[in-house]
Design a protein that fits this description.
about 220 residues, alpha+beta, L-fuculose-1-phosphate Aldolase, seven-stranded mixed beta sheet, about 15% strand, globular
Length: about 220
């Protein structure tokens, strides 16, 4: 993504997260891959005060630009994720309510509803706790998210990746929805897990979901 486009998109991401309730105040952060590194939201700036020029460049070697605002304290985590996951162009981290409740209880999102597959796996795992902003947390999240597009962070929140920022944000929204379903199910005694067969059938059903162009339309 071009740098100016990415700067504008990061403002949009943070404002959408705030408007939807995924995030509150100055918590949460987002990053986008750009030429030579990534752009990440700054530390401690409310969404309504953000501007494209607020975003901080972090080079491929992990060093942030020191000429402007300080980057999010989680820049190491974003850097490690983008370095490890070449399939990711965007990273979104937020403290959405139900995902954070489960994370604080060390409870993964189990496959009780087929929409958990949006996360890229049959469950959303929980990364072990480490202090925010540390290398330890960054490495724990990378390891936990392996093979998936999302994970919970113990006693912290949730984090997602996507091929686009729209996808990463949509996955974060679905993770929060599945966390809310899990929370509700636990309140009334727990839910019935879907079998592996049911999950695989749902994966196949998703292949024909939506309005993907038919083969003869792709050339139009």
């Amino acid at each position: 993504m071009q740098e100016q486009e990415a700067r504008t998109a990061l403002v949009e991401i943070m404002r959408r997260m705030h408007a939807s309730g995924l995030n509150r105040g100055t918590s949460g952060n987002a990053s986008l891959r750009v030429r030579g590194g990534m752009l990440i939201t700054p530390s401690g700036i409310a969404p309504e005060a953000l501007a494209p020029d607020s975003m901080v460049f972090v080079a491929d070697d992990g060093r942030p630009d020191t000429r402007g605002l300080r980057p999010s304290t989680e820049f190491r985590m974003h850097h490690h994720i983008l370095a490890a996951r070449r399939d990711a162009q965007a990273v979104v981290h937020c403290h959405s309510r139900h995902a954070t409740i489960l994370a604080c209880c060390g409870r993964p999102i189990e496959p009780i509803h087929y929409m958990v597959l949006v996360s890229g796996g049959s469950s959303v795992r929980v990364a072990p706790y480490a202090t925010f902003g540390t290398e330890e947390l960054a490495r724990a999240v990378v390891a936990t998210m392996a093979g998936s597009r999302a994970c919970l962070m113990a006693n912290h929140g949730q984090i997602t990746i996507g091929e686009t920022w729209q996808q990463a944000l949509a996955i974060a929204e679905e993770v929060e929805e599945q966390a809310a379903v899990t929370y509700g199910a636990l309140l009334i005694g727990g839910a019935v897990r879907l079998s592996e067969t049911a999950l695989r059938d749902a994966e196949h059903a998703f292949e024909n979901y939506g309005q993907a162009p038919r083969p003869h339309q792709r050339l139009a």
